[in-house]
Design goal:
Strand order of the largest sheet: 7-10-11-5-4-3-12
Strand content: 35-45%
CATH superfamily: RNA polymerase II/Efflux pump adaptor protein, barrel-sandwich hybrid domain
Mean pLDDT: 90
CATH architecture: Beta Barrel
Helix content: 10-25%
Number of domains: 1
Number of helices: 4
Distance between the termini: 27 Å
Low-confidence stretches: 1-10
CATH topology: OB fold (Dihydrolipoamide Acetyltransferase, E2P)
Length: about 140
């Protein structure tokens, strides 16, 4: 895991995940992947109180909004890192949306996808690049 510190909060970014500039992550398993939001994103959102996700079978495109995360601060769109068909939705989040805050890279996953085009993976950031991106973003906030 990559360790980063943002506004005094230490975050860890799994090295085997890929990341977007919109703060979603993708963990690839062969021809499928698991999508969630990053630790950075959940810190920015605050306490998550509701999640709206697509149905199994929905086809989503890369960079397309596929749901929302509602926190005490705001409602935020969730964008898919890649194109694919939803094969599973994290049903635990309907009763425990706070898992996104407590387990953003594990139990707080959002959807699983059958990948439509593995070439799209090349547009995503590796953990080191994402950590640098978040670090630079944090410096902008404090400037």
């Amino acid at each position: 895991m990559i360790q980063a510190e943002f506004q005094g909060v230490e975050m860890a970014y799994p090295a085997d995940f890929l990341y977007t500039k919109e703060h979603e992550w993708l963990q690839v398993h062969g021809d499928s992947g698991t999508v969630g939001i990053t630790d950075y994103a959940q810190h920015e959102l605050g306490d998550v109180v509701f999640v709206e996700l697509p149905k199994v079978g929905a086809k989503i495109k890369s960079r397309q909004s596929f749901g929302t995360v509602e926190s005490v601060k705001a409602v935020s769109e969730i964008y898919s890192p890649v194109s694919g068909e939803v094969t599973a939705v994290n049903e635990d989040l309907s009763g425990s949306p706070e898992k996104i805050n407590s387990e953003p890279h594990t139990g707080g996953w959002l959807v699983k996808l059958k990948l439509a085009d593995k070439n799209e993976l090349s547009s995503l950031m590796k953990a080191q690049d994402y950590e640098k991106y978040v670090s630079e973003k944090g410096q902008e906030h404090s400037a």
